[in-house]
């Protein structure tokens, strides 16, 4: 049974024992030798496929080209055989592989998500854990256990501690979870993982300006940086180096100064000793390349495109009002007060966080494409701009309540829409979860994950290489020590020009 752990700020003279500190309890979960259940293993395989899909589709996008060039500037480090980089045969040291692959996985905003008190992309745990596993020659069983821990810790932190309210970027939950996952992978002791978790948290707390206003390429780099820091934190902890203690609860710690302050209290749910780590089953991936809270709205817009074609013409529409949760309204809706969310010259990263833009394009096109829907010429189309500027959002308390519900059966990421036409007709509809959600109209299964890979890899990876990769990943629990290099998927000849990488310091 899950155990709820109270967490609050302690004055230094209270001398909180480390056994009672959240970082130590996380470390204890990471060291629990409980086996991974079959359904969790199945989902881990799905998410490795999912990560490969979106990374392959990003291989020649500028952030990935730059991150890959940085990684390739560093040779394989001592202590292992190095780790692979998406798309190519060359290896580098594990922290730089985590960096390059983390950027590739995150760039299109197209992999899995978990939303509760805060939000997250728990698939970001996979690149650093896999990089370390490849470097040290781990087997598939160890990798499964490490990834299950990474997901468990991140989901549990996201359920309990809100970072967004204090404008702290959500990767502050990723550093500790990835460090814990690497600790499980390597079979480290509680004390070492405790120190690594503290260092990983201490080095990955940053403001969320990276997801505000004119969103930059750093949005894709932020989780990769957290993964890289987690690898380095584990390395330091293994060498006997310690972290700030207590990192969460200290009077000058994260909670006291970055989150809810000296009087704060949280309740963090963690698995009891011997309890299986099943949090990955509460997470969900994306059918569409957009912020997760836009997934359901794309599906609803596609439905309205079919049923009400008259609503796709700006000349017929007086207004479009989207009623949704507090988080959706204030982060990707008009409540963010970001004029860039209505700008036809905004960056892809900004449009990805604009529900008025996304809903408009999906409504007009009846579809969503990870490249075409963000193209500058698509965003600048006059009829699209005209309709886009008639779309606004507002918070609906009931949708906010459902967004924050811990009951998976009623948790919702959608809302309702009112389209008022110029002739006075009002079209209304609503959606609770995306079609691909486990409770949606068309839940993703292995078939959909494989189809996503084949679709996004078309023209980039040879069919035989896709087949080889899928055969390897589907055997993950049986892969022997040293066989995890098979989880690297290679681009076809000529797809990547390594000489085109931008020059920097390294």
From TrEMBL:
Residue intervals of the MmgE/PrpD N-terminal domain: 21-266
Domain of life of the organism encoding this protein: Bacteria
Domain MmgE/PrpD C-terminal stretches: 288-474
UniProt xrefs under Pfam families: MmgE_PrpD_C, MmgE_PrpD_N
Signal peptide: none
Similarity-based family: Belongs to the PrpD family.
UniProt protein name: MmgE/PrpD family protein
Protein species of origin: Arthrobacter sulfonylureivorans
